[in-house]
Amino acid sequence: MVATYPVILCGGSGTRLWPASRADRPKQFLKLIGDRSSFQDTILRVMDLPGADEIVVVTGKAMAELVERQALELGVKLTVIIEPEARDSAPAIAAAAAYVQSRSPDGVVLMLAADHHIAEPEVFREAALVAIEASKTGLIVTFGVQPTSPATGFGYIKPGDKLAGGVFSVAAFVEKPDLATAKAYVEDGYYWNSGNFAFTAKTLLDELAVFEPAIRDGAVASVAKGQRDGVRLHLDREAFGATTKKSLDYAVMERTTRAAVAPAAFTWSDLGAWDAIWEASIRDTEGNAASGDIHLINTTNVLARSSGPFVGAIGVADLLIVAEPDAVLVCRRDDAQAVKTLVDVLKASGRDIAHRHAIAFSGGVERQPVTSTPGAVVQLWRLEAGAVAELPVGSIQVLDGALTAGAESLAAGARQDLGAPVEVRAATAASVLVTTWR
């Protein structure tokens, strides 16, 4: 059996899903619908496909820990390809193809986005198997989703002649249309372009050698010269930097004669904005989708979410209400795309809130601001069992759990003034109040 490698692209910051999604914790890692992130749901859809033995994820160093934690929760065999810099999708996908070819010369790549919602995973699997089989004939197969509406937020695919194996040639890829054009596309049998693909690693690299040799050569060299560190493969910086910044659509798909489309009937969304989250969520009889500490009275067709404060809404309709510990968004559902404009304003004014959550998490340690004065900053640190952290110069109080610092143990209730940074390990899950003096 030819090996199949599900490859998941984990990039982007999901600006239109601010304040929940930001660059330090983008949308694919958030539990926006149900109890798992879209990244985890993507893995679950493909981990048991015939011939699939290893999940490959392409991401940046900043996201590697989130990728590993969420993927390993599912017990999958994992390789995380670390891009030294973001250079658009073509170099990232080319590097993944080069890695797959180094493992299996005839290997098939099933290239998936990490942030898509698919309501019927079994229907997706059927389409994936069709696409995988067709790709073995030398085609680069994309998934074409049957439109449910004349959406203006997606690109479209015009299907051509029917080919063997249940796929069609691609007559044209078209950009996001206006509403009138979208209606015409739907009437003419166009598909939504889902941005998911199946191809053999050899086919893609051969096409890149023709159209974008700098991408092909740089990607192959970046893998060959890369450094393995556990599940991580760090691409060689110099070789990867020699690739051309370009999307796969522009680099290959709009130029190749090998493009094909596999029709798919699953319910699909790229979860691009909060109105899409409302559409994909389970709603009550009044059309409301609520998550967190929420109470709604005489309210209809509202998305209300909170990961922090209590949110109450009375007598409103068609709103998006999203509350994080450090930010609250309220807007009309039909203005969901304008959230990006708000984030652009925050970025232009230098507001850190545009990029990062107030509550930071890394290395098994969550750091939450408590208060700040001209003389001191107070944070609550929550450490997972086994986590290692460096406590800064200042004052600490262990609220619960236990820490070890060398031969010394710090149990709940312990207080210390630190004149120098101290490395501690959480013997059990622990909470520590950390005060640094200005």
Written overview of the protein:
This protein has 438 residues and is of the alpha/beta class. The protein is built from 11 helices and 29 strands. It has a 6-stranded antiparallel β-sheet with strand order 20-21-22-29-24-27, with no helix packed on it. Strands 6-9-7-8-12 form a 5-stranded mixed β-barrel. α3 packs across α6, α3 (89-103) crosses α7 and α6 (201-211) crosses α7 (213-224). It is globular. It starts with a strand and ends with a strand. The mean pLDDT is 94.
Defining traits:
globular; 29 strands; 5-stranded mixed beta barrel; 6-stranded antiparallel sheet
Please write out the topology.
Layout: E1 4-10, H1 38-46, E2 55-60, H2 61-72, E3 78-83, H3 89-103, E4 108-113, E5 117-118, H4 121-135, E6 140-145, E7 156-162, E8 168-174, H5 179-187, E9 191-200, H6 201-211, H7 213-224, E10 227-229, E11 232-234, H8 237-241, H9 248-253, E12 259-264, E13 268-269, H10 274-280, E14 289-291, E15 294-297, E16 303-306, E17 311-314, E18 319-324, E19 327-332, H11 339-348, E20 360-362, E21 365-372, E22 376-383, E23 388-391, E24 394-400, E25 402-405, E26 408-411, E27 415-418, E28 422-426, E29 430-437
Parallel strand pairs: 1-2, 1-4, 2-3, 3-11, 6-12, 14-16, 15-17, 16-18
Antiparallel strand pairs: 4-9, 5-13, 6-9, 7-8, 7-9, 8-12, 10-11, 18-19, 20-21, 21-22, 22-29, 23-28, 24-27, 24-29, 25-26, 25-28
Helix pairs in contact: 3-6, 3-7, 6-7
